[in-house]
Amino acid sequence: xxxxxxxxxxxxxxxxxxxxxxxxxxxxxxxxxxxxxxxxxxxxxxxxxxxxxxxxxxxxxxxxxxxxxxxxxxxxxxxxxxxxxxxxxxxxxxxxxxxxxxxxxxxxxxxxxxxxxxxxxxxxxxxxxxxxxxxxxxxxxxxxxxxxxxxxxxxxxxxxxxxxxxxxxxxxxxxxxxxxxxxxxxxxxxxxxxxxxxxxxxxxxxxxxxxxxxxx
Length: 216
Ligand code: E4P
Known about the structure:
By secondary structure, the protein is α/β, with parallel strands linked by helices. Helix 1 packs parallel to helix 3. The protein is built from eleven helices and eight strands. 54% of the residues lie in helices and 18% in strands. Helix 1 links the parallel strand 1 (2-6) and strand 2 (22-26). The longest helix has 19 residues, at 197-215. Strands 1-2-3-4-5-6-7-8 form an eight-stranded parallel barrel, surrounded by seven helices. Bound molecules: erythose-4-phosphate. Erythose-4-phosphate binds next to helix 7.
């Protein structure tokens, strides 16, 4: 499973990129709205220059014509821009349009296996099931990843599954085991993935021994 970061904050992206683990970035209108003093297109441009991988920018329009217009403008920004589209009839219509043009798409707000299958058949490069939001309403988000992964394997579908709406490190491990190709993880959770008390204790111990020896 690869790591994408789920943020529009450039400092967070720069830091995660420096760790050498980053294969892409996803944004959404809520994440972009948090960013001040920068236009949406300019932010996508700087991210796409830094990260050598898929950078999802989401359309705002609700009709297919509007989504196509916005998506074409987004795709012009850089070759690694992925047009993010909502899981609606208009979203899938636009998805098919972009697929036919060879432009990558990420169909977002996936909450059922049937939605994922439909998006895949509309030519989606990626589908984004939101596991945290399913957990929030008492459904099992990880189970959905597993079901979609099984269906895509049975039917030889090459659409990639992005586990989205990740809330904690256990989601990351579970999504990897369930067959997600990618997890798009918020900065805070990515940082949590580093921590283990025995790693920290081990470093302290090694350093203490080293310094003792040097003092002899
Ligand atoms: C995915 O692409 C979305 O941006 C994201 O994962 C949504 O997560 P949330 O439920 O934490 O808003």
